[in-house]
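Format notes (please read before filing issues)

Several people have asked whether sequences and structure tokens are stored in separate files. They are not. Every record keeps both together, in the order shown below: the sequence lines, then the token lines. Line labels are part of the format and must not be stripped during preprocessing.
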Amino acid sequence: MKTHEKPKKINVITMGCSKNLVDSEHLMAQLAANKIEVVHQSDDMDYDAAIINTCGFIADAKEESIEMILDAVDAKKSGQIEKVYVMGCLSERYKKELPDEIDDVDGFFGATDADLIKITNSLGANYKQELVGERMVTTPSHYAYLKISEGCDRTCSFCAIPKIRGKHKSIPKEILIQEAISLATKGVKELILIAQDLVLYGIDIYKKQCLAELLKELVKIKGIQWIRLHYTYPANFPLDVLDLMKNEPKINNYIDIPLQHINNRILKSMRRNHDTDLTRSLVSSMREKVPNIAIRTTFIVGYPGETQEEFDQLKSFIKESRFDRMGVFTYSPEENTTAFDIKDNIPEEVKNARKDELMQIQEKISLEINQQKLGEEFLVIIDRIEADYFVGRTEFDSPEVDNEVLIEYESCDLEIGKFYRVKINSVDSFDLYAQLV
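Then the structure lines:
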């Protein structure tokens, strides 16, 4: 890739998931170390180059990434900015097609560590190996995501991630510990562990599952007060993590575990490696080992061939299980996945109706769970001020996707990023209203 003159100021635009965000933060630290001014998601046109870190996971995400690239190219054509660079999952997945289809981009890069080096060097900067693990945090300064592995060894029929990100690759513990210490010195109090699959952490480099061992090291870090687990896989779930969660106050009683479905035929077609019995058993084990655990999950509706009876089975499972947090996706066929060759025979209106039906059930469940919290006290961390409220979260809620706790702005003087004990005095389906204790 041709090396260009070093830009004075770069706007890094991140699309998609928090794993992409971590990649952007690593890149931004490298650029800043090369004395390049760097901003994240700037709405102002006061920069001379844009780097778009794209998502290529599902159709909607791909369209959003392409629209962002085209907007940046238009800004370049109109003279508002000088250069446009594209990196991440979309350009990794379509590395041959994109340069031919959008020829005004100054450089396309993939989604690997090698690509971070390439894009840094192509900008006239020097990639500094001693800064591996350093990041420019773009989230509110009191929480950050810690990506503990890359890629995935699972073969889920609907998912293109292994094709994009490659095989599962754990990041060595010593690098993660150093990165977490660095984040703590920057004021981070909450670590949110992420990966395509947390549960297989360590299997490639230590020849065993080491998530619990990693957690035991992370809880020792001064300044870190909460640790949260995202993206765990049901099959091979390490139950020792639950034992640690129950006994270690710093590990939030919270788990994110996408179950995707409950019907055996669909789970088998999805290549999920867990069936109805294992799924039910795992959910029971979580609640037995950690009685007040909050379980977040996601499901896919409209998978090829999903019958009304199979959907009804999923609906019943959700009613019985009463998950604390839940998301629902409608199936979309993705090229280069095994499910792509199965006829997508569920009409979009049926998919959307099934999604809406499940979310209506979940809204009712969520309200009932919240009503049980009336009069109770919780420790919350304050994320932001919005309208007339301080907005915070309990340990049972992750940023941006879960419930929030609202405290009237005029009733107290709170600081963003600090913990407070509050009492719940009112609720709705997805929010809790509280007063300072």
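For reference, the curators noted about this record: The chain has a mean pLDDT of 93. Residues 6 and 123 are 5 Å apart (CA to CA).
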